[in-house]
Give the backbone structure.
Amino acid sequence: MSNEWEIVIGLEVHVQLRTRAKVFASSSWGFGKEPNEQVDPVVLGLPGTLPVVNREAVEKAILFGLVVDAEIPDQCAWDRKNYFYPDLPKGYQISQHTAPICKNGFVKIHTSSEKKIQLNRIHIEEDAGKSIHDIDENYSCIDLNRAGVPLVEIVTEPVIHSSEDAFAFLTELRKILRWIDVCDGNMEEGSMRCDANISIRLKGDNQLGKRVEVKNLNSIRNVKRAIDFEFNRLIEITENNQIIHQETRSFDADKNITFALRSKEDAEDYRYFPEPDLPPFIIDEVY
Ligand code: ADP
Ligand code: MG
């Protein structure tokens, strides 16, 4: 029965840009420091502080865009993505919603045949801090070293149709990022993180099915395992005439299963608006 189903996958990859300073502040950053050692007033979101764009981060994002044949629009702009989370001191993340630094582009993979995996966009944003949960003591700690680390989010179109192709895409992407020294690509340390959006449809169907998003995938191999698990789970739900919920799920690598985290938020929930502290900026041809 199950071979009449087709899997549809779109990947969102967060990549930490190898810069010296954070994206809107002067703190340095790097893996393995003491908690809250790499912070400053801007990172902490203290009243009266203002962000300043890190040129090195913009240049690394553009370099990656050029390598994957993306368009670099003349003008790009910043937006506020609002949400509350203890590891997000300002109560919002500065990101790019309407005018990202790069559009389109593709990454070539070689599996059963040569394929171009079409990218939708590449945008710059700031990373959040980390909540560390102490299970025995029943409290949580916040480490803001990661807050404000420059990220690019690389988003593919929903054009990947097997876990093998997803694996090949991420392997190729990591190779490119390392080669041009934009990111070290260490998924175990979180410098490259991938969310997999997955849906199924009957072969030959053109419409997209309802998708689930799987997070917390800390290796390329686990991305593949999570996709394989999810493909079977979605088929089973559908064939039992049950309903697929649009939700965010997490992967448990020990049990080799995914489990529901929360229902998926839509873009409207974030109340995006243009970032008032940072003007749009021009990237001219000469630059
Ligand atoms: P969000 O930012 O809310 O996660 P986007 O619309 O930007 O949502 O999509 C994110 C990713 O999900 C993209 O990689 C896109 O290709 C993929 N995607 C969207 N719809 C589907 C679907 N029905 N099945 C599989 N992937 C999808
Ligand atoms: Mg998403």
About this structure: The two ends are 56 Å apart (CA to CA). The CA atoms of residues 103 and 121 lie 4 Å apart. The chain has a mean pLDDT of 94.
